[in-house]
User: Which sequence fits this backbone?
């Protein structure tokens, strides 16, 4: 495919806190590149302009660097195939979309969002999977030209074969066959001129000379669309490898609604990057019992992409704890341990900001551990009695906690001002005074009804730790609420 050797990439979207699943996929690509003497590239896929933010992009870069992953090309360091941020490549995609349309493989679709929603509702009511019905597929060239000239909003969709199936070989799943009637007429170019993920992904991988695409198994169903785009543009597709998703012990999908999934959560709790990478790397190698403690170089030496499991990677937090403890005890010198502790305490200015907020609230330094300790604890071990002094009923407390938790997710920029504004808005929406809303939050966040200022504390702890503490607090309060009749 290319004379440049093996080239792989990780291409996260900066639309939220970096997920451990991103580190899992990134580590596979990194080890694959090291195994083959190839290049590991970072690309930011920010075609979703409404949810992508510079803050989240910075968090992605910082999280992957914390993990110990190094890329040879990326938005922060440049490279020969840049830019490495899709929003900076916007003008690259449209000519390829027009090429597909001109060749008769794509068409302009003028369907309104309202029509598409009614179409999907009817399909769901009939028990059919929702997908585009081809309403604009056979418009005449004259009508299309006229409507485009009139400035009517439209998207560009790709045509899909009406018979047969797409057959391809996957590096993990082997030979795969997906019938074409299960594949939607994917939008390639949105009405605002931005490409969809699928179009930009294929164009970028080709122009960046990516030889192997390793990603999560949830993208397996998208391969037929991607293969078609490659064919429509006359390009050879890369080798596809779809890795089993990380799952909870009950085999359910790892999601932030059930368990902490943000890399920032694990950094805040004091996990060390070598242990997390060691834990994730064990999913990709075969070892004997007693060989679990492995550095990045040792993982690369044992890495065998030809012998991957399709069984699923179970995110066993107890095993991660065990590995993290072993790394701290067995791999860090006294000096290195002390350095790691200080670095961890000062992460995100946690120590500095905590001390600044404490200075006006103590009479002696010995009071600091009780006042600021919650900023550094892994678990508050909340007891239902911690909420006893709050005047609200258990039912009201639970309603507040269950309302606040998802509403805080709407905040794009996480800081004192945005947190306060959102909590005030929540109080207005719930028809309650702000002090009623914040009372259970003090306990949920700090373990006490009196502590450092709430909004500041939430900003210091970070989104992922706050999310988990609110979730655990809701579970604790739920034990006070009697069963529903």
Assistant:
């Amino acid at each position: 495919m290319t004379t440049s050797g093996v080239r792989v990439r990780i291409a996260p979207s900066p639309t939220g806190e970096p997920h451990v699943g991103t580190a899992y996929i990134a580590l596979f690509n990194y080890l694959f590149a090291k195994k083959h003497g190839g290049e590991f590239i970072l690309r930011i896929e920010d075609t979703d302009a409404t949810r992508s933010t510079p803050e989240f992009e910075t968090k992605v870069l910082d999280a992957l660097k914390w993990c110990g992953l190094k890329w040879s090309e990326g938005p922060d360091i440049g490279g020969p195939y840049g830019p490495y941020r899709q929003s900076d490549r916007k003008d690259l995609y449209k000519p390829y979309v027009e090429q597909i349309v001109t060749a008769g493989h794509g068409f302009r679709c003028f369907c309104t969002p309202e029509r598409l929603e009614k179409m999907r509702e009817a399909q769901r009511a009939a028990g059919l999977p929702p997908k585009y019905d081809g309403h604009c597929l056979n418009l005449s060239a004259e009508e299309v030209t006229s409507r485009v000239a009139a400035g009517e909003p439209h998207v560009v969709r790709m045509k899909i074969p009406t018979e047969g199936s797409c057959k391809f070989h996957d590096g993990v799943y082997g030979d795969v066959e997906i019938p074409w009637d299960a594949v939607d007429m994917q939008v390639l170019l949105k009405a605002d001129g931005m490409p969809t993920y699928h179009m930009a992904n294929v164009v970028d991988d080709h122009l960046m000379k990516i030889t192997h695409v390793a990603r999560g198994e949830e993208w397996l169903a998208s391969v037929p669309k991607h293969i078609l785009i490659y064919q429509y543009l006359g390009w050879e597709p890369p080798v596809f490898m779809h890795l089993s998703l990380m799952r909870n012990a009950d085999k359910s999908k790892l999601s932030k609604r059930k368990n902490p999934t943000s890399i920032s959560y694990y950094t805040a709790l004091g996990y060390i990057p070598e242990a997390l990478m060691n834990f994730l790397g064990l999913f990709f190698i075969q070892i004997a019992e007693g060989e679990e403690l492995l550095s990045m170089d040792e993982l690369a030496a044992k890495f065998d992409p030809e012998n991957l499991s399709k069984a699923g990677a179970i995110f066993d937090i107890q095993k991660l704890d065990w590995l993290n403890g072993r790394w701290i005890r067995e791999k860090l010198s006294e000096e290195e341990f002390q350095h790691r502790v200080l670095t961890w305490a000062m992460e995100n200015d946690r120590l500095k900001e905590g001390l600044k907020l404490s200075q006006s609230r103590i009479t002696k330094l010995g009071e600091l551990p009780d006042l600021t300790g919650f900023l550094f604890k892994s678990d508050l071990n909340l007891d239902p009695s911690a909420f006893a002094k709050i005047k609200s009923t258990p039912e009201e407390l639970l309603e507040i906690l269950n309302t606040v938790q998802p509403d805080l997710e709407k905040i794009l920029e996480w800081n004192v001002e945005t947190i306060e504004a959102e909590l005030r808005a929540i109080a207005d929406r719930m028809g309650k005074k702000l002090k009623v809303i914040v009372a259970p939050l003090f306990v949920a966040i700090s373990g006490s009804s009196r502590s450092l200022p709430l909004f500041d504390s939430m900003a210091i702890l970070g989104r992922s730790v706050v999310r988990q503490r609110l979730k655990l607090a809701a579970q604790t309060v739920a034990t006070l609420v009697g069963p529903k009749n």
